[in-house]
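Key result, reporting period 2: structure in, sequence out.
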């Protein structure tokens, strides 16, 4: 287990992460049109992404990923329904909450919603993250009005902990965040007797 936090450079899994209907692997530049098609008003309502969201935005985002993984900021996966299939969503693992804390965020495009993709993606990402990086907790920070995302958090097995006031920043504006979190035992992992960081 790493003693530095966040672990860096962050390493991708050797093969796609799969659970139920979801297949998570790396985004590529071939995914750019699918990303742009999937980022609708509902995604932009809850996630601070450029609005309107263009192919240039998606390209810039993909180009930033190498730096983000190298400095331990996070890894953002494509969500697909089959290996090599089109991107239908995104699930990211981020390290910005202090020692031992990871965070998961996600969106699924309108055409693929309601099939359990966000739930499966969140769960498999949490399992892989605990096994690979050993965080003490993985948080999902959800605006209290985002009923769909709250449902995903609970369905994936995270526990509701309360509201962190001004817990997130959306385009420079503080917003409250309902905090949902996984501890290792929530996904069947035994935490180490003592952490290294
Ligand atoms: C929220 C979002 C990720 C859900 O994705 P999804 O793949 O459709 O979610 P799932 O199919 O895994 O749904 C899981 C559960 O949530 C419920 N759910 C999903 N969207 C919902 C909504 N808008 N309102 C109420 N419940 C909803 C599903 O019915 C399902 O319930 P169940 O466990 O009782 O069957 C998707 O709507 C989205 O991308 N929204 C915009 C971006 C966003 O809010 N991201 C999260 C920011 S914190």
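The corresponding designed sequence is given below.
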């Amino acid at each position: 287990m790493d003693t530095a936090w966040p672990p860096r450079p962050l390493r991708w899994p050797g093969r796609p992460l799969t659970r139920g209907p979801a297949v998570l692997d790396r985004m590529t530049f071939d995914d750019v049109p699918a990303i742009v098609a999937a980022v609708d008003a509902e995604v932009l309502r809850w996630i601070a992404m450029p609005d309107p969201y263009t192919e240039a935005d998606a390209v810039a985002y993909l180009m930033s990923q190498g730096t983000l993984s190298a400095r331990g900021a996070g890894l953002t996966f494509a969500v697909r329904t089959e290996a090599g299939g089109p991107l239908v969503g995104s699930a990211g693992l981020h390290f910005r909450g202090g020692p031992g804390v990871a965070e998961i965020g996600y969106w699924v495009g309108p055409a693929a919603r309601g099939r359990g993709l966000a739930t499966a993606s969140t769960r498999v990402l949490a399992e892989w993250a605990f096994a690979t990086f050993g965080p003490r907790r993985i948080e999902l920070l959800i605006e209290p009005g985002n009923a769909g995302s709250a449902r995903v958090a609970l369905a994936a097995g995270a526990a509701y902990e309360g509201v962190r006031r001004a817990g997130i920043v959306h385009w420079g504006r503080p917003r409250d965040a309902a905090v949902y979190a996984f501890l290792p035992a929530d996904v069947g992992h035994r935490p180490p007797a003592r952490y290294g960081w």
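Residues 17-187 form a domain with the Aminopeptidase fold (CATH 3.40.630.30). The two ends are 10 Å apart (CA to CA). This case is discussed further under Risks and Mitigation.
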